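Note on ligand handling. Small-molecule inputs were canonicalized before submission; formal charges were left as drawn, and no protonation-state enumeration was performed. Where a ligand contained multiple stereocentres, the stereochemistry in the source SMILES was retained. For 2-acetamido-2-deoxy-beta-D-glucopyranose, this procedure yielded the string shown in the input block below.
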Amino acid sequence: MRKRVRPTEHSDGENVSSSFRMQKKTTVCQEKKGLASKFWFWVKSGAFALCAIFIMMPILEELPEIIRQRVYYHRIRAPFVFDLSHPAELELNHTINMYLEPEEGISLGIWHTVPDDKWKEAQGKDSAWYHRSLKDGSPVIIYLHGRTQTRAAKHRIGVVNVLSSIGCHVLSMDYRGFGDSTGKPTEEVLTKDAVWLHRWAKENSGGSRVLIWGHSLGSGVATNTAVRLMEQGVLVDAVILEGSFKNVQMYWPQNPFDRYSSKIKRLILRDEVANDVIFPNDENVKKMRSPLLFLHSEDDHLTTLRNAEQMYQAALSVQGDKRVRMVTFEGFLGYLHMGLYKDPRLPAIIKNFVVTTEEMS
Ligand SMILES: *[C@@H]1O[C@H](CO)[C@@H](O)[C@H](O)[C@H]1NC(C)=O
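Structure output:
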């Protein structure tokens, strides 16, 4: 569009050379101007692209999740979605998928993984074998997951494998509305489901110890469950809280970008769990009388270490250092909010906690 001033266009007669010189100067100047506007064009485009990426990122990040959730909400089976009924295909070859009904019309998808020294024996076995094996005296751990995805998420399978490797049964549940479970999630029904599963595990394991592991939002379900059971006169054998938060208001990330992106996510994804929920971990840990283990990565970017430490201190002052412990993982390891299952020290840490809390009860 922009016209270039050519020296020849304006050279008329006498002062050709001086005019030429002058014009040449102008040309250089114009070219500079051209370069400058090009420069600004790219700066503006770049800034625009950055803005677009900034706005889109939280959405793009969740895209596979949106697809998965929509698919499961509408009960459509699609080939690109994990088949939750075949855990063996997800590196869990000693696991059976089952559906339990905590109340009429509600079906919860649950995996039962046996201790991994039984993995060979478990091959090709049916639900009756798994059901019998739950009574073998090994501790049972109920795994309560965080607020997105399903029991098939990689870091959840990672934890299940660690717990199985130290000789525990694991019951990994998708709450209502998650995965292939029916119903709609609310704080009340998530807690109800976990309380129900705890009772089921006690009854069907012949009274084995039943521990509860809660990760992230699941830590809120875990402490709610422990408090609810206490009100019913039942003391949970032990509780492990991984990446826990004080309550849902504090759960929302502290740094501006994360706060912004979770706001957008909530807006767009209509996160059903995030509205009208409290999950008061900070209050619950003061009421609880079960042995407690806090696990937290120093570099956790979603639930801060500081909040977990404050809850640990609060629980410690109620129950003492024999019953309440905390293990943190160095920030340079890069575990963030869900990677601590990778730590080679974890099996020994959990085994030690399971054994010492057994001596207490
Ligand atoms: C089955 O799982 C166990 C426990 O995780 C593992 O040690 C074993 O190698 C697996 N076997 C096969 C054939 O994948």
